[in-house]
Amino acid sequence: MQPAPDRSDPYVVYFSSATNNTARFVSKLGFSCDRIPLRSGDPALHVSRPYVLVTPTYGGGKVKGAVPKQVIAFLNDPSNRSYCRGVISSGNTNFGEAYALAGRIIARKLNVPDMYRYELLGTPSDVNNCREGLVKFWQNI
């Protein structure tokens, strides 16, 4: 039996494609987390506490399709949406203005902070910056 999660520590909800790039990044953060299902037939994720969303950006540099469909489905649940406190997104700087666009779109729609952006797999500095930023942010929610 696992101990109950410490609610004073950051909680992360994330989406990762089959490449698992986002999953690897989130695992390096070391916080309690849950993954948004990859396939529509998988059981839906329902959260009941505040979280920060980590998502990749899709769309190949276009606005349309920047937010993964699985993330949209997750956020279409009013309860899931209500617990989101911020967004961290990944992207590819080759896509210019569309770099990490999913985070900006979600943050604007949910009126939460677009907390951090990192490229592709993220660097050790990205992991440290996100971890430290999440700990500070979590103290104020």
Automatic annotation (TrEMBL):
* Top-level division of the source organism's lineage: Bacteria
Kindly give the SUPFAM superfamilies that the UniProt entry links to this protein. Answer: Flavoproteins
Q: Name one GO molecular function term.
A: FMN binding
In terms of HAMAP family, this protein maps to: NrdI (MF_00128)
Q: Which NCBIfam families match?
A: nrdI
Family membership noted in the UniProt record? Belongs to the NrdI family.
Function text:
Probably involved in ribonucleotide reductase function.
List the PANTHER family: PROTEIN NRDI (PTHR37297)
Q: What is the protein named? A: Protein NrdI
User: What gene is it encoded by?
Assistant: nrdI
